[in-house]
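Suppose a colleague, Dr. K., hands you the sequence of a protein chain of 297 amino acids and asks what its three-dimensional shape might be. Before reaching for any lab equipment, you can write down a predicted structure in token form. Begin with the sequence itself:
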Amino acid sequence: MSQTSRPFQLFRNINAKIASIPMILTASVVFLGGTIWTIVYSFTNSKLLPRREFVGFDQYERLWSTNRWIVSIENLLIYGILSLIFSLIIGFLLAALLDQKIRFEDTFRTILLYPFALSFIVTGLVWQWILNPDLGVQSIVRGLGWESFTFDPLYNADIVIYGILIAGLWQGTGLVMCLMLAGLRGIDEDIWKAARVDGIPMWKTYLFIVIPMMRPVFITTLVIIASGIVRLYDLVVAQTGGGPGIASEVPAKYVYDFMFQAQNLGQGFAASTMMLLSVAIIIIPWAYLEFGGKKRG
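The predicted structure, expressed as tokens, is then:
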């Protein structure tokens, strides 16, 4: 492209570019400005209202010396790792089953995706009832004669995070299934025919041919799941409120409690900055893999 034609490129789709200016300004002021403001005031001693009394890294030192924050990080790691693993495995297996052109596929797909349409609060309340030892699974099984059966994860501090994980998987697996199914439907039919002609077992076709071809789908799905994990809040509030004690605390709840209940903005800003850092650790490698590799190619 010649040097003289480049200026004219700026005037292509000029109406669309003008229309996008308010959105760009809003995103810059609200998101970027708010992010910078939060980071700056995380180094202050702000309480009920923001104030420019800088205390260096005191808020971060206090944050990482607080048992409640450490517990919330441990819970998030347990929930996050297991959620990533089981969401991908279950979602892919369901997608692979639906990809076999089974009868009533649309019905099954709707049923499996329906939980994702519910809010996390509704999901949390529903699973709170299901896992309630006096109303849910434990009560039903004991009513059938197994008096010694015990299943009360939301009331056991050692396994409460797994009770929350069950609800999270129930809601989010349907979306993963749809993403994987879309990826599978994008695989050329000739690849399946060639694998059958060569006598390659179906599981090897999936493992060594199909899954590597679905790399972009897997990366996108991982980013979507990971962003939801970092923001985990609603399920915890609806199911346990952070209990028993602080056994099911998560970072998002820690931020909310300190900013709006404990009236300690500085501590809340420090915790939210650490959450932002964790999101950046996820997004930046993904952006580099997706766009940096394409640019090099």
